[in-house]
Design brief:
Number of domains: 2
CATH class of the largest domain: Alpha Beta
Order of helices and strands: EHEHEHEHEHHHHH
Shape: elongated
CATH architecture of the largest domain: 3-Layer(aba) Sandwich
CATH topology of the largest domain: Rossmann fold
Strand content: 5-15%
Length: 205
């Protein structure tokens, strides 16, 4: 199977639950990896494809919240769904604040769990799209020279070539050339489009 297909990682120390969930996800067409111990999942390199993690809360040595934190430290970015027969409100709140997308009490139906997985995969798709867009913008803006960056910011403020030249102490003709290079490098058709690109880029720094 292709790495582009969603994969569901299941972590539960109950062998019967693990087998049951693994079979269900396989029947639904997902790639599945099951782990009876949290540390077996942590031994893997972070998955770079789309997916999510379904994990129990209470497990030996490393509970679900500790595994959630360990996965993030290791570079896993996939959304996490908790299932637990022992959850309480403070624990659920803590899990959600740490990035979990759902906290489902046992017993959970297949329909509830599959719906949660779809929500998690949708969030994962959105996050991956956002990362790709961030990387695209960073790549475009990284082509600008320091002076072109200055011109770019002044253009975005609506300054004309003459005003930019006065601000930077350079010739208007030079600014005109730099303006064209900036628009070309950023693949922008207008100053308004450039301003929108810069506005989307600013929160990334």
């Amino acid at each position: 199977m292709s790495q582009a297909e969603p994969k569901v990682f299941v972590v539960d120390d109950d062998p019967s639950v693990l087998r049951s969930l693994g079979r269900m996800f396989e029947v639904e067409g997902y790639q599945v990896e099951c782990f009876a111990h949290p540390r077996r999942m942590l031994a893997l390199p972070p998955w770079t494809g789309p997916g999510c993690v379904v994990m129990d809360l209470r497990m030996p040595e490393l509970n679900g919240l500790e595994l959630q934190e360990a996965l993030r430290r290791a570079g896993w970015v996939q959304p996490i769904i908790f299932i637990s027969g022992h959850g309480d409100v403070p624990t659920a709140v803590r899990a959600m604040k740490a990035g979990a997308v759902d906290f489902l009490p046992k017993p959970v139906t297949n329909a509830e769990l599959l719906a949660a997985v779809e929500r998690a995969l949708e969030r994962d798709r959105a996050a991956r799209d956002a990362r790709r867009e961030r990387e695209r913008l960073q790549a475009l803006f990284s082509t600008l020279s320091p002076r072109e960056w200055q011109v770019c910011r002044l253009m975005a403020r609506g300054l004309l070539d003459k005003q930019i030249a006065a601000e930077l102490g350079t010739a208007t003709q030079t600014v005109g050339l730099q303006r064209r290079r900036v628009l070309e490098k950023l693949e922008a058709q207008s100053v308004a489009e450039l301003a929108r690109l810069l506005e989307r880029l600013e929160p990334l720094f």
